[in-house]
Structures are given as C-alpha cells and as structure tokens.
Amino acid sequence: MKIGLLLFTANDRYDNRARSYDSIKAIAQRAETDGFDSIWLADHLLYHKPGEPIRGIWECWTLLSALAEATRRVEIGTLVLCNSFRNPAILAKMAITADEVSHGRIILGVGAGWNEPEYKAFGLPFDHRVGRFEEALQILKPLLRDGQVDFSGSYYQAPDCHIVPLGPRPGGPPLLVGAEGPRMLKLAALYGDLWNTGYMGRPETMKERLAMIRTACQEVGRDPATIGITAFIGLWFPDLLANQPSFFPSPLTGTAKEIASAMKGYEELGIQHIMFQLEPYTPETRRRLTEALQLYRHT
After folding, report:
1. Does 19 fall in a domain?
2. Which CATH number do you get for residue 86?
C-alpha cells in the first residue's frame, strides 16, 4: 500500500502567515527522502469565513508543476482539483504536460468543489456543480486515455479536440475522483481509475464507505475490483494541539506504533493508497508520521 503526505500550501491556520515556496519544496523533498510514496496538494483560491480575516493559499497547479521538477521519485497528486476552476479540456492538456515533466508521476485528482466564497470572489459559477462535473469527466477521461474527444454539452464543449503530443504513459495520468454522495459515487464508478474518500480515522471508519463504492460500481455495471480505493486520513496529535480540528469527524490518533498498526489495517482492507493530513502541521508531527511509516514498512 502506498503512503502519501498532504503538503500545506495555505497560509498558517493560526497566524495567517504565508508559507514560502522554498519551505514547501523542502518538505516535499524531505518526504521523498523519508520514503513517502506521494505528495498531495489541495486546490483552493482563498478561505473566507464571515467575521474572520481572509486566509490565502498558493495556486495548486503552479506549485504542482514546480514540484514535478523539484522531486524525482514521489508521485504528485491533487486532492482534489475543483472542477469549475479550469476548463476540462485544457486541464487534460495541463495534466499530460505535467506528466511529461515529472516522467509519469502525476495523479489527477478531481472533484466538484464546495467552498462557495472563493467561487464568488473569482467570478466562477457555483451552480450545477455535479452536472458540470459529470460533463467534465466525459471530456477528461477520453482525452487522458486516448488524446481525443468530440463533446458538446450544456456547460462544456470540446469539438474534435486532440491532445498532441501525449505524455509518457499509455492511458495518461490516472484519474482520481473524490466523491461521497450517491450521484458523485456513480460518477467515480463510471470514470475513475481511483476513488478517494475522507476524512477517515481508524481503518474501521472505511467499512461503510467501501460498501458505498461497491454498490455504486454494481449499479453502473462495473466490477468493484477494477477501481483503486484511496483514503484521505485526518491524523491528530492531541498532545501538540489540544482542540480536535472541527473538520476531522473521527481522526486517527496515537503513537507511531499505533499509527503503523492503522496503516496495516488499511492495507488489510484492500486500500491501495492512503494520504495523511497532519494537525498540527509541524516538523514534530511529520517526524512522528515518518517513524510510523518506517515501522509499517518493516513489519
């Protein structure tokens, strides 16, 4: 099973200080040295809650492109791109180009998006997000796989579209779909090479989600064994951050040995790839996760 680390590219959650690219790159390179299989980037334009200062974040694809050159071995994924931010045909072109730069290490994670304030601030449509996403997948999938599509929909058009040249991998970068609701799960089952769900905690928190994606695959006539299962895990260290993060419903906690045991539990469930978000995001929490990774690899 592959183990990944989410890189924080937003301003610091507690004092809103910007993270420099040099610091982000250094963590990515250290993760590669430490044996992580992948690094992951979130895709947002800003965070803005009423009554709170605007919190900034670097643009995802620009950083991904830079990290493709700054690293050599780790896979580089998006967790996940907000569909409405980019035209899907152009996104496919971008992904294939980045896959060339990285020598075949890109995982294209996509989702419908959710954070309405950033859509409004940048003049992007927030309506019919799942409908738009469904059309986008009908463009993305054939372009990544075959380099051509002819599509006309209500929201997107790609008439007689071709991507030339194609990248280093037959079939292009794998398409990961982040999905949880019934309609989104069916789209994952129809179009995804990989499916992602989060925020997960201990391995048993995956069991209901696994049943959901299996049902979705059966409903669309797909063998569930043909879709790769990935899980985004919220890892919280209460001794370093007293209050449980509100966006972690049931986080994983514990010692390095206990975290390694949880990794083994995910593997036993047949999960292909897990990614960790750390709270707090500090050198010490990254050290503890690295220790757990090394224990997992040697048991």
Report:
1. yes
2. 3.20.20.30
The residue range of the domain holding 38 is 2-178
Residues of the chain with pLDDT > 90, as a percent, come to 96
Is the backbone peptide bond immediately before 199 cis, with ω within 30 degrees of 0? yes
Q: What pLDDT score does 116 carry?
A: 94
Residue 123 region, left (φ>0) first, then alpha (ψ -120 to 50), else beta?
A: left
Domain count, the chain: 1
What pLDDT is attached to residue 48? Answer: 87
Q: Rounded mean pLDDT of 61-80?
A: 98
Question: What span, in angstroms and rounded, lies between the C-alpha atoms of 185 and 217?
Answer: 8
What local confidence, expressed as pLDDT, does residue 259 receive?
98
The mean pLDDT value for 215-242 works out to 98
Q: Write out the chain in H/E/C secondary structure.
A: CEEEEEECCECCCCCCCCCCHHHHHHHHHHHHHHCCCEEEECCCCCECCCCCCCECECCHHHHHHHHHHHCCCCEEEECCEEHHHCCHHHHHHHHHHHHHHCCCCEEEEEECCCCHHHHHHCCCCCCCHHHHHHHHHHHHHHHHHHCEEEEECCCCEEEEEECCCCCCCCCCCCEEEECCCHHHHHHHHHHCCEEEEEEECCHHHHHHHHHHHHHHHHHCCCCHHHCEEEEEEEEECCCCCCCCCCCCCCCECCCHHHHHHHHHHHHHCCCCEEEEEEECCCHHHHHHHHHHHHHHHCC
